């Protein structure tokens, strides 16, 4: 029996490893939605983060020839600032986050973090410095504990629970019969969009990156879930340089700067109050969302 057990055990291990890499790849590709294009320069150095100031300077970018997507985008984020990006679908908001993560190289202009061009640093060090909370998180068919700890191998149960508490998901998890050992994902407990996003937030809290990119879910959430998520996001954004891709303007009133994008350009920027006073596109969008909200209520 022991003779059989050993190879079977190895086989089981190999199967789990392969399954895990397939899921990881699947997750990567769904996140990237692209082929891997960029390479480290031979002399690439690790990114040295000192406060995490971000600067986009006259950035031009196209995915395909003849179809410019970003047409001269410039903005800055000082250390710890929260910058919100709003605009119609297809305006180029997510493209900005993909470029910061360097899924693609730009055609013209520059993107720097603390004065270092992101093309001059290693991709590993760049991505280690950025936490992404995507709209739709893919969870592994593993326990909730594993899914949260994924960003920090070797995290203790205490650390996992602390992160979950900050992400407003701890009470939900402890309410499940198997708690943190509950298997989730396609073949386990199916979590709602809001629950999955909070798991992603807990994961990011554990990763503890100096830069954060939050992609707000487009789908409407019930107001209790929405409130929970907003609290969780505020917790995680605290003292980090944050880019929020926002769909509901009510969630970004407190942003240090709001960039309004249209067709690959920033057409307005300022605080919520400044943009309302200006009476331009943002003010119009705000008015429309307020009316929709009142009608829904
Ligand atoms: P949404 O609010 O709907 O998420 P967005 O403002 O984030 O929209 P982006 O995802 O940045 O928009 O897309 C900007 C434009 O780039 C769109 O017209 C889109 O079709 C195009 N685009 C996005 N990804 C690719 C790709 N991988 N290849 C080619 N074109 C792409």
Automatic annotation (TrEMBL):
Intracellular or extracellular location(s): Cell membrane
Stretches assigned to the ABC transporter domain: 54-288
Domain of life assignment: Bacteria
Name of the protein in question: ABC transporter ATP-binding protein/permease
Origin organism lineage: Bacteria, Pseudomonadati, Pseudomonadota, Alphaproteobacteria, Parvularculales
Section covered of the full-length record: 314 to 610 of 610
């Amino acid at each position: 029996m022991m003779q059989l057990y050993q190879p079977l055990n190895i086989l089981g291990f190999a199967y789990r490893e392969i399954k895990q890499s397939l899921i990881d790849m699947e997750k990567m590709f769904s996140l990237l939605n692209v082929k891997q294009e960029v390479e480290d320069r031979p002399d690439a150095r690790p990114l040295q983060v000192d406060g995490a100031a971000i600067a986009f300077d006259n950035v031009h970018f196209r995915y395909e020839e003849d179809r410019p997507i970003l047409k001269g985008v410039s903005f800055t984020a000082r250390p710890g600032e929260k910058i919100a990006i709003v605009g119609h679908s297809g305006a180029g908001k997510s493209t900005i986050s993909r470029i910061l993560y360097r899924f693609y190289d730009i055609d013209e202009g520059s993107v720097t973090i603390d004065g270092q061009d992101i093309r001059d640093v290693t991709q590993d060090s760049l991505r280690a410095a950025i936490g992404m909370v995507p709209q739709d998180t893919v969870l592994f068919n593993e326990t909730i504990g594993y899914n949260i700890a994924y960003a920090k191998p070797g995290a203790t149960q205490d650390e996992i629970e602390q992160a979950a508490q900050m992400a407003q998901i701890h009470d939900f998890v402890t309410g499940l019969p198997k708690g943190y050992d509950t298997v989730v994902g396609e073949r386990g407990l199916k979590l709602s969009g809001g629950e999955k996003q909070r798991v992603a937030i807990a994961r990011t809290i554990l990763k503890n990156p100096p830069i954060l990119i939050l992609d707000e879910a487009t789908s409407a959430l019930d107001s209790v879930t929405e409130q929970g998520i907003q609290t969780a996001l505020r917790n995680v954004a605290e003292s980090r340089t944050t880019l929020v891709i926002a769909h509901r303007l009510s969630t970004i009133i407190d942003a240090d700067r709001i960039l309004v994008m249209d067709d690959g350009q920033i057409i307005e920027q300022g605080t919520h109050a400044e943009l309302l006073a200006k009476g331009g596109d943002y003010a119009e969008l705000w008015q429309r969302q307020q009316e929709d909200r009142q009608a829904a209520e």
